[in-house]
Amino acid sequence: MSIQSWPFALAVVLTLPLAACSGVGIEDTKAGFSCIDDSPECVGQRQTALNALMTSEDKSWVKETATPQAHASGVRLFALRARKADLSCEELAHGRREAESAPKVLKSAANQGLTPAQISRASMFAAEVSKELSAEMRRRHCKA
Fold first, then answer.
1. Which of the chain's ends, N or C, has fewer CB atoms near its CB within 10 Å?
2. Each residue's pLDDT tens digit, 101-130
């Protein structure tokens, strides 16, 4: 991980829940994908959303379309990176494409309430995630 992505990654890690929630489905956590401020309510929603992705046995969320706010929140990207060992080659490829397209999606959403700092931070994190998923694909000899 590059030194530039440490502040964002550290912020995400520090907001991880200490214990897994049970009975919370991904559909119940969609608010965490779009809550991008640092209020306690948003941090809690992101924690819940991330926990749902991390504990989901059904990885259908990997192929869902991510919104600019979902990229800015970092929840999906962090889950893709953290679960890369659990993902199939097809899911890794989809996650890599999502991470690679995130900067463009974020820049096109500049007028949708995202600050330049949020766009920059999420773009750097997406680049890191893309590199890590690509490395995992090479390690497993997945076809691009």
1. C
2. 999 999 886 667 888 888 999 999 999 999
pLDDT at 62: 94
> Burial letters for 18-41: b for 16+ Cβ neighbours within 10 Å, e otherwise?
eeeeeeeebeebeebbbbbeeeee
Structure-block tokens of residue 103: 């900067």
- Would you call 78 helix, strand, or coil by DSSP? helix
| Cα–Cα dist 116/45, whole Å | 23
- Name the residue among 44, 108, 26 with its Cα closest to residue 72: 108
- Cα–Cα distance for residue pair 6/14, rounded to 1 Å: 12
**In a 10 Å sphere around its CB, with 0-12 CB exposed, 13-18 middle and 19+ buried, how is residue 108 labelled?**
exposed
DSSP state of 86: G
As a whole number of angstroms, the distance between CA 125 and CA 15 comes to 16
DSSP helix/strand/coil, 15: coil
What is the pTM for the complete model shown? 0.77
Amino acid (one-letter) located at 65: T
